[in-house]
Amino acid sequence: MQLSNCLISRFFLCCISSRGICLVLIREIIVENFMSYDYARVPLKQGVNVIGGPNGAGKSSLLLAISVGLGQTSTERSRKLSDLIRWGQDQARVTLILDNTKQGNRRPEPKYNKDQLFLTRLLRRDGKYWFELENRVASKQDIERLLGKFGVDPDNMLIIMHQNMVEQFSVLNNIDKLRMVEEAVGLESFRENVVAAKTKLTRILTQEESVSKLLEQAEQTLNYWRDQYEKFQEKKQLQLKRQFLDRELVWAEVERRESIVKNLQTNFNRTQQALNKIEDERQALTGEIDGQHIEQQTLKDELKLMFEERLSLERQVAQNQRQLSLVEPLLLEAEHLKSLTDINQFKLLRPENLKKLLEISQQQIEKTTKQITANQTVMQRLEESTNKITTKAFDKRITLALLDSKQSRASKEQETTENSLKEAQENLNIALTQAQTTGERIAVVKSTNEIQAEMGLTDGHLGALSGVSEEIERQYESYSKLYFELKEKVQLVAENREKTLEEVKIRMTAWRTVIEQLLERVNLEYQRIMNQTLATGEIQLSSAQDITAAGLDIYVGFKGSKPVTLNAYTQSGGERTTATMGFLLALQQHVRSPFRAVDEYDIHMDPKNREMIAKVLVAMIKDATSQYVVITPSQITFAQQDANVITVQSLDGKSLVREVAK
Question: What's the pTM value of the predicted model, to 2 decimals?
Fold first, then answer.
């Protein structure tokens, strides 16, 4: 409401301030070969300019020339502008000298620093038309911008009313009347704002519906892709699991090979320990055998010595026995010889010597025999010891042979284990290198068979999802992004809808307020004017809540009758033109255009109303300090009024301006 009040205040302030400024649009009209005119110059002044003359004199042609010069493209007189060219001529020219004097500190068109602007429109028989502004070709848009700065809309019926337009206005529907009023007083921007806001709202509602449908479709599509995406995620998880199982399998293989290496290393160490033990036993046994051999050799040496000693003793026994065998016969012989001869000469043969010798021999034999017995005992003991040592040595050699065989088998086993260990270590290194390419080592809690079984199950699940591709993820992300964008857009559109609804409400309030206040003022003036014609009237705004259906209802009642809607069926022609002119005059002080014109409004009026309307017109235009052109065949009505009267007549088919009087 604050915004509306501000706009309303600005609008009415502009209306009030413009009333104190001398507003003149056209200083002079120059026509060449236009309709019935060969050449004419018609000066216009501030206030009311009355163009009068008999029918067919060319009065309406001047208003038509003004309309064409201001840019109208069609007229009630012809469908083509080329039809307005004077008969027998190829080209027509209409020049309007516009007033560009400063209004306060600013000219209407500040682009030109001069008081007069020459606006020309040329019409050619071949259908080519163009504008010239200050003798330079100008476009229709240039002219529209120029007239916009002057506040003139030549296409508005309330600005320029050609012949029969007073009647046409009375039969217009109330919606068109209201819009025409808005444009004339400069309130079309309020309607445009409302329409723009409503159009924006319609666009937003359409957009909201469209986006909502798109969101629904996107949600359905997203649900499909979400299902596919979940399958894809399941596939990715299975692929990750499969990769982990591959990794777990290779590290399980590493652990298996490490176990093999460890077992082989254990076997190798155990075999090495066994070999070491065998070697220790063998060395110990070899040492024992060597010791036994030495002992046996020693015993053999002792036995040999004993044997040699025995041989020596036996030789001694033999010698003593031989000596006994020799001595005993000698002793017998000596006894015999003793009786025969003197054996003293043979000391050795003496019996005593022989007996002594025999005794010595026997003693020696006995001693030697004892020694032999002792020797035999020693030799027997030595032989027994030797036999024992030999038996032990044999046993030890057998044990040594067994140890050698065991050592050989252990060596072969160790060699085999060592080769297997080397091969296993190489395989382990290969497996370890391969496993390291999959990532850091992981703890393996399952066996290889269990892992392979799980891999088979995972491969089966992956096979079932083989048709699920990576494109699904892109599609899901794309539709997910689209869905959330649409969701945000729906929310944004809803927010814009609420804002626009509020904007429509505010702008509708502003439009309705300015229209109601305008019509309130116009209604008071309209009632005042109609009272002077001994009639009653009222102006109302209908359907104010709907700008598209809102209209201007003009009511009028003549001769004491109740006011009814102005239309083509209820009132007479004079009553309609009187009521219409009453409304136009009531509206004049609010019209923004400095120039207005009306053609033959008073044809059907009675003399009293014609005179009253003329007085009101002159008074109101004088107060408004604007420029008004009135086309009438009864300029006598304005004879006593403060008006610029221009009389035209036709002579030999040519229209001429005969008189210009103030």
Answer: 0.61
